[in-house]
């Protein structure tokens, strides 16, 4: 069973008390995909994994990004950071190596520079439909591995349909503005919480963890949060 399906099955389990794990993330963030894998590995060793409710929340690394046809990710980031293209190439080569250690295949030469706002709106539809975990996995793989355009409506509609969303509803959402306020609201909430980098994990609004931390550390925080809450005992 794939990890995404494993987690989806866990989230369908019914319990009187559940731990809520919120994750602020952007589909354009390479650390977020790695953080997702490390979380999945952490949950495999957490005895109360079936009682964890995972909620993916919207965050944009570059909300003002505009499509730049023909511009590579290396060129885009070099300009944005004021660095050289060689710097970008070397940094991403290291990220590809780190991702491979988690079984992820990153291909930054194929990445299409696009605004992630509509992808976040699609993820909100998936959340409402109980398919958020599968949708997040699909978006990450499409962006980092397949070089799909996250700003292209037909691409997003196709991926939504792939994970089980209703085709007609998916098209209505992607081509319209539904969930736009939800995306903005969660991005603003991240700012109020002081989020400066993603992935940002929040457990029961009591514990926070920033970055693609090692699975062992994530599991330790989950165990501490569980042990410290009287609601779970």
Mind explaining what this structure looks like?
The protein has one domain (3-232): Glutaredoxin (3-Layer(aba) Sandwich). It is built from ten helices and four strands, in the order αβαβαααααααββα. Strands 2-1-3-4 form a four-stranded mixed β-sheet. Helix 2 (30-44) crosses helix 10 and helix 7 (153-162) packs antiparallel against helix 8. It has 233 residues and is an alpha+beta fold.
CATH topology: Glutaredoxin
The counted number of beta strands is 4
Low-confidence blocks of residues? 8-16
The H-level CATH homologous superfamily, spelled out, is Glutaredoxin
- Number of H- or I-type helical stretches: 10
* Largest beta-sheet characterization: 4 strands, mixed
| CA-based shape | globular
Strand line-up in the sheet with most strands: 2-1-3-4
- The CATH class: Alpha Beta
**Overall pLDDT metric:** 92
Number of structurally distinct domains? 1
Which series of helices and strands comes N to C? HEHEHHHHHHHEEH
CA radius of gyration is 18 Å
**N/C terminus separation:** 30 Å
The helix content is 40-55%
How would you classify the helix and strand content by structural class? alpha+beta
Q: What portion of residues belong to β-strands?
A: 5-15%
- Write the CATH architecture name: 3-Layer(aba) Sandwich
